[in-house]
Specification:
mainly alpha, three-stranded antiparallel sheet, 7 helices, 3 strands, 9% strand, elongated
């Protein structure tokens, strides 16, 4: 018989069970709700309420006790600064357990642990959001009415547009050999104005040089004539 053996072991050793409670309390205060099995929720509820009672004391010793149990320092600040003052006029019973049904897989009964003022805070947040949305619409409508009632500004005189300068056509790039447009390179250029050959040219090379030459002969150097 388990006489005077209070509490649930949860299938864990003492050290493991204590570490589990520390982690669950930290997550519960951080998110202000937690979903777990009914057995763990029943074990977690008194531990969380004791921490809130420490927060209501708001002494140095109470803060050190909370820091020794809660794993995250920002959560301790939240406990003493925001969570505990919400229950200043309430003597215990800060949380409640709501059963959610059976968990698929192992068929364990699941429950939600949350603060008793969770619904009130949700309703207040919903009303604040609706009020903010209504005020935003009213201000927008007021601005539209003001704009419609304001006189239209005089049309500014249109300045004459400057005549756009047409850009000169870009010079065509030289055609590459082997293309259709390079045929003109192989055409015989027109004859240049006739010039008289110098007498020493034919005597020096021993060639008969005509009196007139085309542009192709003029472009050749003297050494190749």
């Amino acid at each position: 018989m388990r006489h005077r053996r209070a509490g649930r072991r949860l299938g864990r050793t003492t050290s493991h069970r204590k570490a589990l409670m520390r982690t669950m309390v930290t997550e519960f205060f951080e998110n202000e709700k937690i979903i777990t099995t009914v057995s763990k929720a029943k074990e977690l509820r008194p531990v969380a309420e004791k921490m809130i009672t420490l927060g209501k004391r708001d002494t140095l010793h109470a803060r050190r006790q909370a820091l020794a149990f809660i794993r995250k320092k920002p959560v301790v600040f939240k406990l003493f600064d925001s969570l505990a003052p919400r229950f200043a006029d309430r003597n215990g019973g800060y949380t409640r357990i709501l059963r959610l049904g059976v968990r698929p897989g192992d068929a364990a009964e699941v429950a939600l642990l949350e603060f008793v003022d969770a619904e009130e805070r949700k309703e207040a947040a919903r009303k604040a959001a609706a009020k903010k949305k209504t005020s935003k619409k009213a201000s927008k409508k007021k601005e539209e009415t003001t704009e419609a009632a304001a006189p239209a500004p005089e049309a500014e005189e249109k300045k004459p547009k400057r005549a756009s300068r047409k850009k000169a056509p870009a010079a065509e790039a030289p055609a590459k050999l082997g293309t259709r447009s390079s045929r003109h390179l192989f055409q015989v250029p027109p004859a240049s104005p006739a010039r008289r050959a110098w007498p020493f040219e034919s005597h020096a090379l021993g060639l008969r040089v005509p009196e007139t030459r085309g542009s192709w002969g003029d472009s050749l150097p003297l050494s190749s004539r």
